[in-house]
Design a protein that fits this description.
- With 262 residues, the chain is an alpha/beta fold.
- It has two domains: 3-61, Winged helix-like DNA-binding domain superfamily/Winged helix DNA-binding domain (Arc Repressor Mutant, subunit A, Orthogonal Bundle); 69-261, 3-Layer(aba) Sandwich (Rossmann fold).
- Helix content is 37%, strand content 23%.
- The protein contains ten helices and 15 strands.
- The chain has helices spanning 3-17, 22-29, 33-45, 69-72, 77-88, 105-114, 133-139, 164-171, 196-207, 246-254; strands at residues 19-21, 49-52, 55-58, 98-101, 126-130, 145-149, 153-155, 160-162, 177-181, 184-186, 190-193, 212-215, 227-230, 237-240, 258-261.
- The strands form four sheets. A seven-stranded parallel beta sheet has the order 6-5-4-9-12-14-15, sandwiched between helices.
- Helix 8 (164-171) runs parallel beside helix 9 (196-207).
């Protein structure tokens, strides 16, 4: 196999899985690890990937890379829908309380599920607290939901409020459940996101709730982005659609994090 063919295959694996390992590629191509590293070096020079210990990650997963909500909405749509449906099981029609919902495309799927939520009794209601203008707009369509919007400086790329005003408002509330998104979930680095202001808000949401639940599709597993906003032990439950690798699974078990596979 020529170098160009190997590199095309590597690009395909990166698009599918987000990361590749030198040892696996060497075994697949039946070449030396040095040959694979040269391929990775050439792809990195072209901006396709970023070299990391033992392999490489897609350029889209570099720690500061951040895409808009619109660009991410349809990516891994089936996985995100399954995660949202599993999360809804934690908000039955008998639920009476308050939840907070972080910004993001997976949490937006949960908001779409909540738009159809009906209480068990006519007097029932649900309070949803969010700093996302997109999620507020979705859940406000449901007459059974009382929507409380947290204000602050609006980040256009994600449509969420951030900054001191946002953090001050979050400090004065304690919802029963916080549903939080993440750009990365790593055994050592915990839950992370590229932007420091959003990291601060995600941290406040996580630590300020009675129960923190992370909605993380499998493309985020094993990934580190720039800012860690919560250690594994600070989250009670993660909902994903695919089992993590052994390292992350073991770390979650040691941190006593419940794992739900949607």
């Amino acid at each position: 196999m020529y170098a160009e063919e190997r590199q095309q295959h590597i690009e395909g694996k990166l698009a599918e899985a987000g990361r590749v390992a030198v040892i696996d590629l060497a075994r697949t191509f039946k070449v030396s690890s040095e040959t694979v590293r040269r391929d990775l070096d050439q792809l990195e020079a072209r901006g396709v990937l970023r070299r990391v210990h033992g392999g490489a990650v897609s350029a889209a997963r570099i720690s500061r890379v951040e895409e808009s909500v619109a660009a991410r909405t349809d990516r891994n749509a089936d996985a995100k829908e399954r995660i949202a449906v599993a999360a809804m099981a934690l908000i039955p029609s008998s639920f009476t309380g308050a939840i907070s919902i972080d910004g993001g495309t997976t949490t937006s799927r949960l908001a779409q599920q909540l738009a159809r939520w009906v209480p068990e009794t006519s007097a029932g209601s649900l309070t949803v607290i969010t700093h996302s203008i997109f999620i507020a707009a979705i859940v406000s369509e449901n007459p059974h939901i009382d929507v409380q919007v947290v204000g602050g400086r609006l980040r256009g790329i994600t449509g969420v409020a951030v900054g001191a005003t946002t953090l001050n408002q979050l400090a004065s509330i304690r919802p029963d459940i916080a549903f939080v998104g993440a750009n990365g979930l790593h055994a050592d680095f915990g839950f992370s996101t590229p932007d420091p202001d959003e990291a601060a808000v995600k941290s406040a949401l996580t630590r300020g709730s009675r129960r923190a639940i992370a909605l993380v599709d499998s493309s985020k597993l094993g990934i580190e982005t720039l800012m860690s906003f919560a250690a594994l032990a600070e989250v009670d439950t993660i909902i994903t659609e695919q089992s993590p690798d052994d390292d992350l699974t073991g770390a979650l078990e040691r941190a006593d994090v419940e794992m739900v596979i949607a």
